[in-house]
Amino acid sequence: MIAAPDRTPLPREFFDRPVLEVAPDLLGRTLVRSTPEGPIHLRLTEVEAYDGMKDPGSHAYRGRTRRNAVMFGPPGYAYVYFTYGMWHCMNLVCGPDGIASAVLLRAGEITEGAELTRSRRRSARNDKELAKGPARLATALDIDRALDGTDVCAGLPSPLSILTGVPISDEQVRNGPRTGVSGEGGVHPWRFWIANDPTVSPYRAHKPRRRST
DNA sequence: GGGAGGATTTGCT
DNA sequence: GCAAATCCTCCCG
């Protein structure tokens, strides 16, 4: 018999572990974004781990700044940053207070409230593309820096929380190099996704940008 | 489906 | 100044 999904939010202890344990364990869980129009549910299908100050791919590599301060705090909080002049990306802070590790939420499947996301994702040609990529995910769920530092373990109602759900089996987890990470930080196979899931974003190696003419 | 080029602004060196 | 944990449109095949 199949157990019903557990709708309690993941407790803080879930995030208070090494980030390389937490990242694959997040796959298949449901991120709940509560909005005035109603809840949006996102089943996580792809994530990336950023492992502390030693990780050259991490925003924490060059130390604490105002931008990345949440990464250095306690686990179970959202770190939301702005990049490329246009986009937001969301992470979940892991490990104990003082260790700047986090998991980037890269893609997922909208399982409830898709109609609330389509007006923000006009370029999506089908529902699989609504949250296929970290900035698309944040756009679909109306996530911006106002949510930086949000406690995702506070319990409902909260702007953001993660339902315990039903974890997926290890056999369904794949891993490989991180996407779009420059330099030596890109070599770590710390991107995790669900095998054969159509909402996983395509792999793209980092490409330095040329100056405009 | 994949590559090139542009968009657009913040944060840090 | 310039790079940035990206995405979109256009074009090609």
Automatic annotation (TrEMBL):
It comes from the Bacteria. One of its GO terms (molecular function) is hydrolase activity, acting on glycosyl bonds. Keywords: DNA damage, DNA repair, Glycosidase, Hydrolase. It is an enzyme of class 3 (hydrolase). It holds the Pfam family Pur_DNA_glyco. The keyword DNA damage applies. The keyword Hydrolase applies. Its EC number is 3.2.2.-. Transmembrane segments: none annotated. Belongs to the DNA glycosylase MPG family. This is Putative 3-methyladenine DNA glycosylase. It comes from Streptomyces cavernicola.
